[in-house]
Design a protein that fits this description.
- This protein has about 230 residues and is of the alpha/beta class.
- The protein has a single domain, classed as 3-Layer(aba) Sandwich (Rossmann fold).
- It has helices at about 15-25, 50-65, 90-115, 130, 140-160, 175-180, 185-190, 200-210; strands at about 5, 30-35, 45, 70-75, 120-125, 165-170, 225.
- A 7-stranded parallel β-sheet has the order 3-2-1-4-5-6-7, sandwiched between helices.
- α1 (about 15-25) packs across α8 and α3 (about 90-115) packs parallel to α5.
- It starts with a strand and ends in an 8-residue tail after the last strand.
Length: about 230
């Protein structure tokens, strides 16, 4: 029997690749999106992780359809890049509210069912930027670094209940966003990556699938980089 899985922000990009991989592994997977628009081959629920009532409603819908969430992948996130001297406070707080506080909201809602089952997997999608830093992304880096502290605290808090909490930190991934970069910028990025290429979204999904699998049952509080070596040592 597959487990009940929820992937926030799973309607595109890395989140979609993760959802498709976990579904292929035999799980019952629902993805959230702010629009609630259909995604081929997957169940979708409308959810805004900035709103606790929206999160609660989404979980209730998922629980009724496929049972209590046993695997949570907190992936929903946004960017609002700007140099600090020019960054408006809303740009900082909006990114934190979505990327970090949003992860808190979904984890808090998921833990109810997990504690009753005495098992569960929480997987937070961070970024190499959260550990390595990036000019013009103080808000994004702070939010992604915060996920590490959140996950490690939950690992200590919930381990006795059979619940694991881990972080996957992707580097640069082939996506619509990287596709529009200039050739010069692409060369600069790839030149900094020891493996000399972008990641495929499926490679990030593979790391998540491991943490969600029986093989990952004794891994908790870990940060697994999928970054081609870009952030090694951080």
């Amino acid at each position: 029997m597959g487990r009940s899985v929820l992937v926030t922000g799973g309607n595109r990009g890395i989140g979609l690749a993760i959802a498709q991989r976990l579904a292929a592994d035999g799980n019952s997977v629902t993805v959230t999106s702010r629009s609630g628009e259909p995604v081929e081959g997957l169940s979708v629920v409308k959810c805004d992780v900035r709103d606790a009532e929206s999160v609660d409603a989404a979980f209730t819908e998922v629980e009724q359809a496929q049972g209590p969430v046993e695997v949570l992948v907190a992936n929903a996130g946004i960017t609002k890049d700007q140099l600090l001297a020019l960054m408006k406070e809303d740009a900082f707080t909006d990114v934190l509210d979505t990327n970090l506080v949003g992860a808190y909201r979904v984890a808090k809602r998921a833990v109810r069912g997990m504690m009753k089952m005495r098992r569960g997997r929480m997987i937070f999608i961070s970024s190499v930027v959260g550990l390595y830093g990036s000019g013009g992304q103080a808000n994004y880096a702070a939010s992604k670094a915060g996920l590490v502290g959140l996950a490690r605290s939950l690992a200590r808090e919930l381990g006795s209940r059979g619940i694991t909490a881990n972080v996957v930190a992707p580097g640069f991934v082939e996506s619509d966003m990287t596709a529009v970069l200039s050739e010069e910028r692409k060369a600069q990025i790839i030149g900094a990556v020891p493996l000399g290429r972008y990641a495929a979204a499926d490679e990030v999904a593979g790391a998540v699938a491991f943490l969600a699998s029986p093989d990952g049952g004794y891994v908790t509080g870990a940060v697994i980089p999928v970054d081609g070596g870009l952030g090694m040592g951080h």
